[in-house]
Design brief:
By secondary structure, the chain is mainly beta. It has a single domain, classed as YVTN repeat-like/Quinoprotein amine dehydrogenase (Methylamine Dehydrogenase, Chain H). Helix content is about 5%, strand content about 35%. A four-stranded antiparallel sheet has the order 1-2-3-4, with no helix packed on it. The protein has a four-stranded antiparallel sheet with strand order 5-6-7-8, with no helix packed on it. It has a four-stranded antiparallel sheet with strand order 9-10-11-12, with no helix packed on it.
């Protein structure tokens, strides 16, 4: 019988520890929208949590009425299916806005049954983030790639640029302070900017930040001085003084620090999820971002996260080319399903997705819807 060296035993233990820390790579083929499409955002109806919307870059907007179990295309009136962000009017969930890549902004007043372009005054039509003011839902901010920030105060009937002091016009994310809605933050290709007068003036708040694009911002709902920022090259940063100074918070994250998504548990603000694009997956912190641990999808590029406002145990993750995943609970069970997001009709549009599938993963894995 051959003996096993101490070195071999040590190597086996190291591999075993890595296998336990990071779930095994899923062995199935690419699923969801073809062509590496990105899920820009996920939006849950604030009055009916089973109603969910997601825009897909190259696939338009999809809607679910049963918590993500089934999806239907809702693109009537959309001239461009390169959609990025969708937001819901918190006072009237029949009103939605969606941003597009090259055709500006569209609005629906019938829960995504029909869409109409609302681009008067919008001089840059490559629009990414949208943010609705919580105290006046007719006030909306829109971030563009190269044109800065635009604002409407009449529900999109007229837009005007609000870029004074904004030295980087590539805007990736917008966040409004729910306690003081005149305070707005912008994540840009040049870091983070802040306005305290509803967008009239902006100033950089980058002390302690690394260079790179800020892809996501998160404001603590009850302590608006506490902020989180995700960067595409430098991971997560946290500020406790309204952006006066930032500190890196990457302990436990993988070497891939391409952070695109952040979500906070509304019941326990110390519980935060981070989504990483490019074989990054989802990590979770239970101490306000001081430490992170992988919680699934480690071989998926995660581009958006959202937590069910009525049930913090349910987390949705939109991925890069692999559809939407859901983490309702941990069960030691694997189920494969065929139905899911329905394929759009064939209209000859080469940017439309061609095939959709869904899989269910549980016990340290996520359900694929």
């Amino acid at each position: 019988m051959r003996s096993i060296s101490i070195h071999s035993v040590h190597s086996i233990l190291v591999l075993l520890s890595l296998w336990l820390a990071y779930p095994a790579r899923e062995t199935m083929a690419s699923i969801g929208p073809t062509g590496g499409s990105l899920f820009g955002t996920l939006a849950i109806d604030p009055k009916e949590p089973n109603t969910i919307y997601t825009p897909i870059d190259g696939g338009g907007v999809f809607k679910s009425l049963d918590g993500g179990e089934n999806w239907a295309e809702v693109n009537t009136g959309l001239d461009n299916w390169g959609t990025h962000f969708v937001v819901i009017d918190p006072n009237n969930s029949n009103i939605l806005y969606v941003s597009t890549h090259g055709e500006g902004i569209y609005k629906s007043t019938d829960a995504a049954g029909n869409w109409s372009a609302i681009n008067e005054g919008l001089t840059n039509l490559v629009v990414f983030p949208l943010a609705i003011a919580p105290d006046d839902t007719g006030t909306i901010y829109a971030g563009t790639i190269g044109g800065g920030i635009f604002k409407t105060t009449n529900g999109g009937a007229q837009w005007a640029a609000v870029n004074r002091g904004l030295t980087n016009l590539t805007v990736r994310y917008l966040a409004i302070d729910s306690q003081t809605p005149t305070t707005v933050y912008a994540g840009t290709g040049g870091g983070v900017f802040k306005s305290t007068d509803a967008g009239d003036h902006w100033y950089a708040i980058n002390e302690g930040l690394s260079l790179g694009s800020c892809m996501i911002l998160l404001i603590h709902p009850r302590d608006s001085n506490t902020l989180y920022a995700g960067f595409n090259t430098a991971g997560v940063f946290k500020s406790t003084d309204g952006g006066g100074r930032w500190f890196s918070r990457n302990q436990g994250l993988s070497t891939n620090l391409n952070v695109w998504a952040l979500a906070m548990d509304h019941q326990d603000s110390n519980t935060i999820y981070v989504g990483i694009r490019g074989w990054g997956g989802v990590f979770k912190s239970t101490d306000g971002g001081d430490h992170w641990a992988p919680t699934g999808l480690t071989n998926r590029g995660v581009t958006t996260l959202i937590i069910n406002p009525f049930d913090a145990r349910t987390v949705f993750a939109g991925t890069e080319g692999s559809g939407v995943f859901k983490e309702p609970r941990w069960r030691q069970k694997v189920v494969e399903r065929d139905q899911g997001i329905q394929p759009p009709s064939d209209s000859g549009n080469s940017h439309r997705p061609k095939r959709f599938k869904r899989y269910l993963y549980e016990h340290r894995r996520w359900r694929h819807l």
